[in-house]
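pinned: reference chain
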Amino acid sequence: MGLKQNLHNLKEKYKGTKMAPAFNAIHTFLYLPNDVTHGGTHIKAADDLKRTMNTVIMALVPCLIFGMFNAGFQHYAAIDSSLRADVLANFFTFDNLWIGIIKVLPLVIISYGVGLGVEFIFAIIKGHEVEEGYLVTGMLVPLIVPIDTPLWMLAVAVVFGVVIGKEVFGGTGMNILNPALTIRAFLFFAYPTWMSGDKVWVHGADPRMGMLGTENIPDAISGETILGSYAQNSEVIYSTWDKFAGFIPGSVGETSTLLILLGAAFLIFTKIGSWRIIVSTFLGAAVMGFIFNQIVAADIITESSKFYGLMNTVWYEHLIIGGLAFGAVFMATDPVTAAQTNKGKWIYGFLAGFIAIMIRVFNPAYPEGVMLAILLMNVFAPTIDHYVVQGNVKKRLKRTKVKTA
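pinned: its structure tokens
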């Protein structure tokens, strides 16, 4: 009661001042608001913005915890490949978790600290309440970056993403691009050597970063992802189960398709995530992958081609490698930047998955197109909705004319 009363006193003290939004945000985050409506007719519902954001975060937590274990496992497995012979026995260990704690938690802290700091500054300057929109973005960002991303670099990207990707448009609910993907895109284009290649996905593989808890490490630790191996027509050592479960190198939280699908089921059950977008994104990716498989089967493209490896990847494997599943469930379904009409959601998701695999195959230097595909569809989402609505209007006008006649 002491802390709650102190915060309440501060709210009253600074009520009507520029600092009021900051204290209101802290109080609301920790406790339920004291103010309630009186009289009149109101719609009673439990799906306010705060609860919505918390629900998405709960769906992301398993991916975060798994990513922390995977960070350590990939590090030690790169040193001693025999650990992969019995993944389950060597995965959930304290040594693996410790590396995850030291490397992943700072990413989460910087993401939330810098992002919420910018949100508070804008709320104070503009005199409006602090919005909860960054609660999810702050969790998404650490999960879609390589494990050894420098903290200062992440901080710069977060400032850019929040200011340019959201605040300049008016804040939460007004942005046209997904803020987390905007941050990831800034990192990729501003610091490409830290965001791609075969030395950034496993802790210690990049000689620019120190390694934790080990000594006398071989100079060359390979951290190439499956997509990188396919793009180079190299042999892939991981089984389908490894790819689906997530025992592979990659961004912190996007390797486990199994946990991502569990998160998708939770979001669909709570009616937070759009099942139409999720299903259509996977469908679009599967169709594009199947088309490429038919091109290879028809001998239109040879093994010597630089596109052959990813074209020859079985269509369903495209769905469980890279960031496709994570993007389909947690990025494409962003209710602000996605299509709003039901038919529009099918079109939006299908094109996002279709284009993602197209970019993945035709850009072997960057064999992951999910980020760019979703950002592209964010831009076209209003246009898709416009034509869907106009199409419905025309159908109704035709029915009206028939009845009149």
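why pinned: The chain is about 60% helix and 0% strand. Confidence is low (pLDDT under 50) at residues 211-217.
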